[in-house]
Amino acid sequence: MLNLVKSEYADSIYYADLFRINKEIWMVMGYGKSDAARIASGGEKADDIGRDCIAIRNNSGTLEGRYDPGAINPVVQSSLFDFYKIDHVVYCLSPDETEEIYQNNDKVMRSCPLEVMMRLCVSYPYPAYAAQAVFSPEELFFLADNERRSKIFQEVIASCDFGKLAVVPFMDEVEEKADLYKQIGISDK
User: Fold this and answer.
1) Using one digit for the tens of pLDDT, what is the confidence trace for 139-171?
2) Per-position DSSP letters for 81-131, written without gaps between them
3) Using CA atoms, how far apart are residues 70 and 118, in angstroms rounded to an integer?
4) Does the pLDDT at position 135 exceed 50?
5) Pairing verdict, β 88-92 and 165-168
6) How far from 176 is each of 119, 132, 138, 148, 172, CA to CA, in Å?
7) Residue 63's closest CA among 163, 174, 179, 172?
8) HSE of 43, CA atoms in CB hemisphere, 13 A
9) What is this structure's pTM?
10) Rounded CA separation 129/131 (Å)
11) Is 64 exposed, middle or buried (0-12, 13-18, 19+ CB in 10 A)?
């Protein structure tokens, strides 16, 4: 029998992945988020840190994230639940969003204001699948509230010494998108 307990970070879990790319940790959200990041990380299993349920926190001014499905077995000691310093937070745009934002301009990674990323980070439902085993329906409803989730994201990011937020355009070839990660060039345009 599993002895699951509520994650103390259940209120800051987002539909995102954590990957190590070029020795930096990327929190990747949005449309088609996983394949390009996996390719950019060289396909190394150790660099595929966490998928779909990423909790964030401020640790003494440093933005950190970990894999967190909303309920944790405290007996299991696993590096799966370790926190990592996040170097980049990016949101992958859908084909329609890319067309709207980029029109006919070069498809480069673009810097993204926190106010925009706050809205993007809640584009997908609350992902903490294991939370339903330990939280009441009322608590789950509270945790899933997009306005609250957006505000928590803003508070955590704003309280850290962190400004590396970007949007990533949809690319016809996933390898092209992976190259954007590897280049780490973020345009202010």
Assistant:
1) 999 999 999 999 999 999 999 988 789 999 999
2) G--EE--EEEEEPPHHHHHHHHTTS---EEE--HHHHHHHTTSS----GGG
3) 20
4) yes
5) parallel
6) 26, 38, 43, 35, 8
7) 163
8) 1
9) 0.93
10) 6
11) buried
Rounded distance between C-alpha atoms, residue 99 and residue 169, angstroms:
9
Please spell the DSSP secondary structure of the chain, one letter per residue: ----EE-TTGGGEESEEEEEETTEEEEEEETTHHHHHHHHTTT-GGGEEE-S-EEEEEETTEEEEEE--SEE-TT---GGG--EE--EEEEEPPHHHHHHHHTTS---EEE--HHHHHHHTTSS----GGGGGTS-HHHHHHHT-HHHHHHHHHHHHHTSS---EEEE---SSHHHHHHHHHHT-EE--
Parse the chain into domains and list their residue ranges: 5-187
